[in-house]
User: Fold this.
Amino acid sequence: MQILRSLIFNILFILNTAFWSILGTLSLLFPKKVLIFISYMWSYTTLLLLKYICNIRYEVKGLENIPQNENVIFASKHQSAWETIAYQYILGNTIFVFKKELAYIPFFGLTLLKAGNIMVDRGASNKTTLNKLIKKFKKTLKYRNIIIFPEGTRTLPNTTAKYKSGLSIIAHNIENKYVVPIAINSGIYWPKHGFIKKPGTIKVHILPAIKTGILSKEEFQKLLTQQIEDETKKL
Assistant:
């Protein structure tokens, strides 16, 4: 039954994604808010497909940990494609940090940039590049939240990749903002490279915010890793 449900979901997911992608491409001719709405609807409809076909639901805890009247940097554990889709609906008014390679995908790359998402070149870590990225974060935080996956890649449940240093450098150089850690267990139900979707409830735990510009890079890195990994082990 899981195989059949997963097959139906995957077919409908591809069709649903194609539909919203076409609209997204057409929306390049219109103001950015049109594309943002399309991204929101793609996220929402995908969550509905997961719920009614695969019996995969989600619960969010810790919303009170998000600072009020502030745009923040969400730093999330990354186990699945699920969070790259769902966060647009769950967290709202967000853009992603994405790797440069995705910008070369026809049409999709253009929509990522048009929506205001932040492109990073993981092969370039010189001072000039980092300064430009810090300025981009500062500008974006004036009007939107930013989502970043500090591990830089999806990891299997019960495993940890070394957290990249980029976020700790950014947080050290931006004052009076917040990084909000997120623990998640999505990889159990939508596995990395997995065809079978397993029924259950994906847990999204939003953890206490870390104020930027106070801790050293090393202290921030240690605290962020500890908070996310300790909470993820409990899920």
